[in-house]
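Lab notes, practical 5.
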Amino acid sequence: MENHDALERLISAEQDERRRLALFLHDGAVQQLSGIALMLDGAMHSLEKGEAVEAREIVELALRQQRAAIRELRDLSFVLEPVVLRDHGFGPALRALADQVAGSHGLVCDVDTDRAAGIGETASIALYTILRELVDQSVRRGPPKRIAIAIVQSADGELVATVVDDADRERRMRSLEEIEERVRQLHGTLEVTPATGTGTEIRVTLPAHTARR
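Output from the prediction step:
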């Protein structure tokens, strides 16, 4: 019964993720592209009337909207399949994620992976996904001014990843439950504690046999 409930929660989490991506595309890039099409129609109409200056202004605005849509789609592509993770490994991928989050949201995102050199390929993909979701949740809840991500691997291979932020401690518990279920599938644990001062620390621990996979 417990395994059945876990599977149901995992399926629900996957459905929620697909729904979130569909809403992101519909409310973001699709709306922007629709607006660009309307602006270009307006520019064509202005040209037909001989109003070249007005047409140029409309096209310039459409170009700005197009570049914004490209950035959003590039960010989504990075989230779905980070090429740097496949080509360069876990550490560079996590630092690239931190740079992307910092640039998009105007915050400081520190990463320390120097003490985690023995993560297996499967574990690195799973842990990267979990950390990405924790960071995304922190940004949506806050946004924070600073996020710190650290990975430590013990001598026996146990892996501990922490995400600390200085945002309000109120959590979207449903989101945390979904992430906890992903951690449990890897035979790991997730702990949430108040950070020193303000904010929250989330600790994900994976056993050695999972970390080496």
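Observations recorded by the TA: The two ends are 27 Å apart (CA to CA). The chain has a mean pLDDT of 80.
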